[in-house]
Amino acid sequence: NQPKIPSMGLNPELLNPIDSHHRDSQDDLKSVASQSTEGEAIPDQDILESIESDYYETDGSFDSCRHELKKLPAKLNCKDIERYYKKLKQQQQVVSKKVLQLILQKQSNCSDEFQEILKIQDQLQEVLETCRMARYDLNLAKKQFTTASLGILANYRKRQTVQQLLNSLNNIKTL
Fold first, then answer.
1. Which of 40, 132, 156, 169 has the fewest CB neighbours in a 10 Å radius?
2. What is the pTM (predicted TM-score) of this model?
């Protein structure tokens, strides 16, 4: 179940339309270039290590096209250019493959973390509802306590009044 890796880069036939009489010589060059690299199965790690450190710059000012154009010799050789193009394309494919593998690896971690976040969010909703109910119940208890306290105070006052009345009646009776 190997993940599909997108093929990136530009097709040289799209960049340089070839006349029919140049097509045969170009096909010969391509076959020579492919024989030189296809016969040698280079591990991905070696290809990654062969990439120049300039490509890893993070300041954002690096221009890979300009960098490669500066490296070209004054006298151009089609075979060398085809070989170098094949090498760059191979490096780009290995980097794309590695990036895709890292994305897929991190995607499962991200998915797990996202599920954990959703679980915590549900728990927070439950806690919030519990807090709301507790506040409502506390407010209700406060009102009931206040009502009961006022009732007790009213009864106590009535009792005091009745006791004073009884004392007054007893005083009148003894006279």
1. 40
2. 0.44
